[in-house]
UniProtKB/TrEMBL annotation:
Species in which this protein is naturally found: Shewanella loihica (strain ATCC BAA-1088 / PV-4)
A GO term from the CC aspect: cytoplasm
Official protein name in the record: Adenosylmethionine-8-amino-7-oxononanoate aminotransferase
Predominant location: cytoplasm
Annotated EC: 2.6.1.62
Taxonomic lineage of the native organism: Bacteria, Pseudomonadati, Pseudomonadota, Gammaproteobacteria, Alteromonadales
Enzyme superclass (EC): transferase
InterPro entries (alphabetical): Aminotrans_3, Aminotrans_3_PPA_site, BioA, PyrdxlP-dep_Trfase, PyrdxlP-dep_Trfase_major, PyrdxlP-dep_Trfase_small
Residues where pyridoxal 5'-phosphate binds: G115, S116, D249, P312, T313
């Protein structure tokens, strides 16, 4: 498809939903007709350096010949087949690779079709496990505030209950238990009382808690916050003490994003249930996986139904499995550790001056994640346009201006991203200062 391809933007505005947008006051959208390497090509011919890896998934960049070849080969033989009563080579291949890459205790793989469904599957696994272990009252999930685990109903129930994206659904969402978010920053020794509230909730409710779910090391869409590995170590110990399963949601952090292959490796712990997605296929097609231990699988098999009660139509889709298998081959070439380390070092150097910008609250970098947190929520539409004008694709949300670029990004491309972040943060800070001035004037003269 050429860069001169016409996109019917009027039809799009009138009829097509985009994520988290209104159909009456929609945010602007930009027409992408192709992508190459780390660049998106717009319908007007402009090229934007992608700072988001298309929501953190396209870690190998766009148009990678190895993944495309694997998908084309699979497409010509078997693009889809039901997984009920049928198996196929691609599902077996990707499952073998996942088990080899993750911790030794994880032995079973459930192949779903999106990250939210991987979380739904994990939560259902936990509830069915306790049914099989004679504790059917253990049906609640405990988590921490400022988390994000997806948009489906079970996943929504463990997202941040106060400032999160799903608060308007109220009591229609299952009421879960929430501890305060971890306070200890990444790389620091655990603050003395950081796990006290979590332990108090486990002590009071462990007889009804099936599992704790948490994003290891990095709270993503809920906070863009990096917390101490000591917190994870302590949480694993608490789950063992109170006989509660630990679900680790690595959908955003898995496959190298935080500098380790999986973020839980920073803490040297193991999950009872592990959720994977996003970079699993390199972003070329949707696929997710939920892995569990033998013990969890046996408990589910001992439950009243005798089987795990979930089976999506596109479970184990051959085309998606082929893409994932190829993506994991690239990960297993072990170029990503050097790439991610270089990205982290460059971001730390080039974003260091952001802390002096008006309206900037904090600057954080870990692995291939760079965050400028503002003191106020930003104008997403205005800042998005400012980034496009600078030839980059960065999508701010709430008070966060962040990048999670492909691992294959060049130093020159990354510098364009960080420079744009500094400039746009300055714009956001100036707008916030002007807004405060207007408010002060209104109050003094009101």
């Amino acid at each position: 498809m050429s860069a001169t391809t016409q996109i019917d933007h009027q039809f799009d505005r009138q009829h097509i939903w985009h994520p988290y947008t209104s159909m009456t006051q929609a945010l602007p959208v930009y027409g992408v007709v192709s992508a190459e390497g780390c660049e998106l090509i717009l319908d007007d011919g402009r090229r934007l350096i992608d700072g988001t890896s298309s929501w953190w998934a396209c870690v190998h960049g766009y148009g990678h010949p190895y993944i495309l070849e694997a998908m084309q080969k699979q497409l010509s033989t078997l693009s889809h087949v039901m997984f009920g009563g049928i198996t196929h080579p691609s599902a077996i291949a990707v499952s073998k690779k996942l088990l080899a890459m993750t911790s030794d205790n994880l032995t079973k793989v459930f192949l779903a079709d999106s990250g939210s469904i991987a979380v739904e599957v994990a939560m259902k696994m936990a509830l069915q496990y306790w049914q099989g272990r004679g504790a059917p009252s253990k049906q609640r999930i405990l988590t921490v505030k400022h988390g994000y685990h997806g948009d489906t109903f079970a996943a929504m129930s463990v997202c941040d209950p106060e400032g999160g994206m799903h608060t308007m659904f109220g009591e229609a969402v299952t009421q879960q238990l929430f501890a305060p978010a971890p306070k200890t920053p990444f790389g620091e020794t655990l603050i003395a009382d950081d796990l006290e509230a979590m332990e108090a909730l486990l002590n009071a409710h462990h007889q009804t808690i099936a599992a704790v779910i948490i994003e290891p090391i990095m709270q993503g869409a809920g906070a863009m916050h990096f917390y101490s590995a000591d917190y994870l170590k302590g949480l694993r110990a608490l789950c063992d003490r109170y006989k509660v399963l630990l679900i680790l949601d690595e959908i955003a952090t898995g496959f190298g994003r935080t500098g380790k292959l999986f973020a839980y490796q920073h803490a040297g712990i193991e999950a009872d249930i592990l959720c994977l997605g996003k970079a699993l296929t390199g972003g070329y097609i949707s696929l997710a996986a939920t892995l569990c231990s033998d013990e969890v699988a046996l408990g589910i098999s001992d439950s009243p139904s005798g089987v795990f009660m979930h089976g999506p139509t596109f479970m184990g889709n051959p085309l998606a499995c082929a893409a994932a298998s190829a993506s994991l081959d690239l990960i297993n070439q072990h170029q990503w550790p050097e790439q991610v380390a270089a990205i982290e070092q460059q971001m730390k150097q080039e974003l260091a001056t952001a802390s002096a910008i008006e309206g900037v609250k904090a600057v954080r970098c870990l692995g291939a994640v760079g965050v400028i947190e503002m003191t106020r929520s930003v104008n997403t539409a205005a800042l998005q346009q400012a980034f496009v004008d600078r030839g980059v694709w960065v999508r701010p949300f709430s008070s966060y201006i962040y990048i999670m670029p492909p691992y294959t990004i060049s130093a020159q491309q990354l510098s364009r991203l960080t420079q744009a972040m500094l400039e746009v943060a300055a714009i956001a800070g100036a707008e916030a200062k002007a807004s405060r001035g207007d408010e002060a004037s209104f109050i003094s003269h009101g």
